[in-house]
Amino acid sequence: METEARNQSRGVVGESEGSLRKVPPPKWQVADVIDVISETPETTTLRLAIPEPSEFTSGQYYNIRIPVDGRPRPIQRAYSIASSPFPKFDVVEFGIKEMEGGLVSPVLAKGTKVGDKLEVRGPYGAFTWTEEKGGPLLLISAGSGVVPFMSMIRYARAKNLSVPMHLLFSSKSSEYVIYSKELDELQSELEWLTVTHTFTREPDHAAARYHRRIDREMVAELLKESSAELAYICGPPEMVELCEVELVNLGMKPENVYSEKYD
Ligand SMILES: Cc1cc2nc3c(=O)[nH]c(=O)nc-3n(C[C@H](O)[C@H](O)[C@H](O)COP(=O)(O)OP(=O)(O)OC[C@H]3O[C@@H](n4cnc5c(N)ncnc54)[C@H](O)[C@@H]3O)c2cc1C
User: Which atom of ligand 1 lies closest to the CA of 81?
Assistant: First the structure.
């Protein structure tokens, strides 16, 4: 799995006095499930208390592994962190979308309850944002691809930042908008946050500005409106690739386009 390969490449961060500072690789640990919240018919928030938490940066992910009948070893999958790393990082929140026929996500999204224990390892990943990177930001997501962006938005709010963020969020319909109520409230509260919804299977709904899949025209319009200097894209690989190409075609520097593919 691609995740494993990426994990192998970590273990070194930052520079000190010309030498790279080594950090021990994350190890598997057993976390307690302290909250289970149904967000949409297919997506569930799991809040886990991590016994030996490591600092993380918004946009990173953990691996979660579970035993699966008929498999000799536990099966692991990557899940982005939805919670803010500030002020506390010992309780970590995930947003898990049930993928029909999948080995891991149906168990996590539909078969997990408060008091359960889950094996986790992390954090991992370079798909990160902090205020040092600046903005304005265009955040483009489909489905559970919104999860790392919730961490970025919650972090910016917790730190009282005011870097403009424009979130384009594609969902099947109003019923399937993950974090719907919280996003509405945040958008009313924070003048630096704009949320644009597109619904692919519910025509003419007032909450959505667009009613189709994310496409070139949409990206061009929102890039112009947001005056974004940085773009983050997260979700299914085809959507991510389309947006990457379009943003660069529209003049964004490739090094300012960050992407995470949920394949
Ligand atoms: C960095 C990263 C972060 C991620 N973050 C999140 C997140 O925050 N939230 C989230 O929900 N997901 C996230 N994902 C996706 C997640 O890791 C899993 O890929 C996803 O949950 C599906 O796992 P699964 O075990 O349920 O499905 P799998 O068992 O991997 O199956 C995936 C799909 O393929 C189909 N399939 C399996 N085998 C076959 C076959 N032989 N023939 C045909 N079809 C088949 C299944 O029916 C299913 O629909 C992330 C992925 C990455 C890489």
Answer: 8
